Each structure stands twice: as structure tokens, then as C-alpha cells.
Amino acid sequence: FMHCLPVRRNVVVTDEVLDSKQSVIIQQAENRMHSQNALLLKLLGGKSKSK
After folding, report:
1. Residues 12-32: what's their mean pLDDT?
2. 3-state helix, strand, coil in the chain (%, to 5)
3. Which residues contact residue 9 at a Cβ distance below 8 angstroms, ignoring those fewer than 6 apart?
4. What is the mean pLDDT of residues 24-33?
5. Which of 11, 21, 23, 25 could be bridged to 1 by S-S, CB 3.0 to 4.6 A?
6. Do residues 2 and 20 touch, judged by C-beta distance below 8 A?
7. Range of the structural domain that residue 35 is part of
8. Is 4 one of the annotated active-site residues of the chain?
9. Out of 2, 4, 38, 39, which one is annotated catalytic?
10. Structural domains counted in the chain
11. At residue 50, does pLDDT exceed 70?
């Protein structure tokens, strides 16, 4: 199960689904956070770290 968070437990989705081993909500939220940070940095004119 994927969701971009925040989610209302037992309203939008049940605890059983959220806590299942097939749920990738935390990974999805982390990916979203990195994408949002990169976009914000770009919009604010910041410089990203280069290798």
C-alpha cells in the first residue's frame, strides 16, 4: 500500500493495511520529502551538493 501521508488511521485506511509488511508508506514519504526538498532548493536558488 502507498500513501503520501499524512493519513487518518481507520478513516482513510485501516491499521491492518498501514501496518502490513506490504505497506511502503514510510519509504514513499521519505522519497516525497527528498523530492520536495530538492524542488524547494531549486525554487529558492540554492546550490545543491555535487559529487
Report:
1. 92
2. 45, 5, 50
3. 15, 18
4. 91
5. 23
6. no
7. 1-51
8. yes
9. 4
10. 1
11. no
